[in-house]
Each structure stands twice: as C-alpha cells, then as structure tokens.
Specification:
about 150 residues; about 65% helix; about 0% strand; elongated
Length: about 150
C-alpha cells in the first residue's frame, strides 16, 4: 500500500491574494454576522430618516448612511477574504473607529449639532457600545489573520 501524497501549501503559481485562512471563519464568522446586522440597521435607519425627516437633522442622517456604507464594505471584505481584502477591511475598521470617536465626542461636546442620534452618537450607546467595540475587535482579528 502506498501512502497518500502530501500537497505543499503555497506551491509555485498560487495567488498571493488567497487567504492563509478564511477571514469569515471562526471568530471572523461572528464579525461577518455583526457587521451584516449593523449594515442593515444603519442603512434602514438612515433611509427612513432621510425620507421622512431629512430637514430635522441632515448631518446625523448622512452620518448614519456613511456608517452603513462602511459596515457594508467591511462585511464584503471579510466574506471575500484574501490579503487585499484583509488590508482594505483593516483600513476601513480604523476609519470606522475614528468616526465613532469623533462623532461620539462631538455629540457629547455639542449635543445641539445632533438633534437626532446617529449610529455613532455617544460612542454607540444606543447600540450597546457595539459601534466602538466592533472595530477594535475586528482590527485585532484582522491583524492576527495576517500572521497566519
């Protein structure tokens, strides 16, 4: 009887853009799910607010729409996988965290600028602070995935 032939990973001709492992597996699967839920939540909220009452708080409603686009891109990148998608998601998570910190601080310092809340208001307090925790967790996961 012969032994099975072992195939060496990373053989010549393999694409550099293929992931060492799937970004959407393990803890990454939870991140995909959470980002997917936040995409739907932020997009739904902003669409309804823009249609029904845009004049009341245009800045808040536009920022919720921006959050939805960022969440959607990160979700797509995690599902797609690969080194390029990992790097793009990492940059978007950093931008998301910066947005949450800027908007969160802005809503506390000058509440009158936001007559209605955004997804990122008060550091995401209306969403159990997940908007501030999620990008940090995702960046840790994405950095960890680069080492595999």
């Amino acid at each position: 009887m012969s032994e099975p032939v072992k195939v060496r990973e990373g053989a010549a001709g393999a694409s550099d853009d293929k992931p060492g492992f799937d970004l959407g597996s393990g803890p990454g699967r939870l991140l995909v799910w959470l980002y997917g839920v936040f995409t739907v939540a932020a997009a739904s909220r902003s669409v309804v607010q823009v249609i029904l009452d845009f004049g009341r708080a245009p800045l808040a409603y536009v920022l919720s729409a921006v959050a939805a686009v960022v969440y959607a891109f990160i979700t797509y990148s995690l599902v797609r996988g690969g080194e390029t998608a990992r790097k793009a998601a990492l940059v978007c998570c950093a931008a998301e965290l910066a947005g949450v910190l800027v908007v969160g601080t802005w809503t506390l310092v000058e509440p009158s600028a936001f007559p209605d809340a955004t997804v990122w208001s008060d550091y995401g307090m209306g969403y159990l602070f997940i908007p501030v925790i999620l990008p940090v967790t995702a960046m840790v996961w994405l950095r960890r995935s680069a080492r595999r």
